[in-house]
Write a structure and sequence with these properties.
Layout lengths: L3 H16 L14 E5 L4 H12 L4 E6 L2 H25 L17 E6 L5 H12 L10 E4 L17 H24 L7 E6 L12 H7 L3 H6 L12 H18 L9 E6 L10 H5 L2 H14 L3 H8 L23 H4 L2
Parallel strand pairs: 1-2, 1-4, 2-3, 4-5, 5-6
């Protein structure tokens, strides 16, 4: 569990970066790459996808469990891609000037795919479909796992797990396990490892995990304990901190699976913590309280980052080096990460 001092320092840093956003990476940072943003139809995910479009990606794949929503997001990103292409064409007089070329790729294909993290069948179907994209050509260059929910009340998924456990932890981990062997097989077709990044939260550090080992030893299990409605954590964030903590533990194990005999990763895995961001994810919590409905319009704009701002941190997960394999975006030990280099 994080100390009060650490939590206060993170909040202060979040507020600071809310008013002083990190600079974007250089133009063309995702030049020619294929990027997949899981949960990319709204909020942070859509903003991250837009950044990748603007930074030269050749193809951006976004997912949602809602076909209409992901279709609207696709049209929005296509408009941005077309605007970039038009601007590049105008800058070269409608074509390439003699002896010159555009500084980075401007054409970008946007692909919308259905993925419902609440259902294992949907996760398996999506993974199988994604594996067909650029098979034998290096696969996906950057995967950003951003799908998450916050519920104000206990709500079971169709699979029988509390929805936050299902979406935020189990769904994300299952998808990663299904894709990692494919990414490993594609490594021989790549000059450098692909990137896989998870959107995490400092809320995960608010858990007191001192009893978790006992639940595991007793046979009850940590997942089974938190899946019971009587143990579902009370408070504004419900089971969100628990689900994000479980995701962090799983990420540590995933990180070990991708390190080769030479000690180098064949997929670079990172967790990216965007801090407090104003998105739709808070809607259920706000709607559950008249007091929060009054307070949110005052506090959120003043303290929380915009999606565009927070997404600047998320896309750094696609720009880390092999030495930064599983380096958290928020370091306290003095080590510099990709996000730190942009400050």
């Amino acid at each position: 569990m994080a100390s009060i001092t650490q939590i206060i320092s993170w909040i202060v840093r979040d507020i600071y970066h809310g008013w002083n956003p990190l600079p974007l990476p250089p133009a063309g940072s995702f030049g020619g790459q294929t990027v997949c943003v899981v949960g990319g139809s709204t909020g942070l995910g859509l903003a991250a996808a837009e950044h990748c479009v603007n930074l030269g990606a050749a193809e951006v794949i976004i997912t949602s469990r809602d076909m209409h929503r992901v279709g609207v997001a696709k049209e929005y990103l296509e408009e941005k891609a077309q605007a970039n292409a038009n601007a590049a064409a105008a800058a070269t007089g409608g074509g390439e000037a003699a002896g010159s070329s555009p500084p980075f790729r401007t054409e970008c294909r946007v692909r919308a795919m259905i993925l419902d993290m609440n259902r294992y069948g949907s996760v398996v179907a999506f993974a199988n479909a994604l594996k067909e994209i650029r098979r034998g050509q290096g696969g996906i260059d950057f995967l950003l796992f951003n799908a998450a929910v916050i519920q104000a009340r206990y709500r079971p998924s169709p699979e029988g797990w509390q929805e936050e456990l299902q979406v935020n932890a189990l769904g994300n981990v299952l998808l990663a396990l299904l894709l990692l062997p494919w990414l490993r097989a594609e490594r021989r077709h790549r000059a450098a490892p692909a990137h896989l990044a998870f959107t995490t939260s400092s809320a995960s550090l608010s858990n007191d995990a001192s009893k978790w080992e006992g639940w595991s030893a007793s046979g009850e299990g940590v997942l089974n304990h938190w899946n019971k409605e009587e143990y579902w954590p009370p408070g504004l964030s419900g089971g969100y901190p628990v689900s994000k903590a479980l995701l962090m533990y799983a990420e540590r194990e995933l990180e070990k699976l991708v390190v080769g005999p030479d000690g180098k990763p064949w997929v670079i895995i990172n967790s990216m913590e965007p801090g407090m961001v104003k998105t739709e994810i808070q809607r259920h919590v706000v709607e559950s309280s008249s007091f929060l409905q009054f307070l949110a319009p005052i506090i959120i704009p003043a303290v929380f980052k915009t999606s565009e701002n927070g997404a600047r941190i998320l896309i750094m997960g696609g720009l880390t080096t092999e030495e930064e394999h599983y380096a958290h975006s928020r370091q306290s030990d003095g080590e510099e990460t990709a996000a730190d280099r942009m400050e």
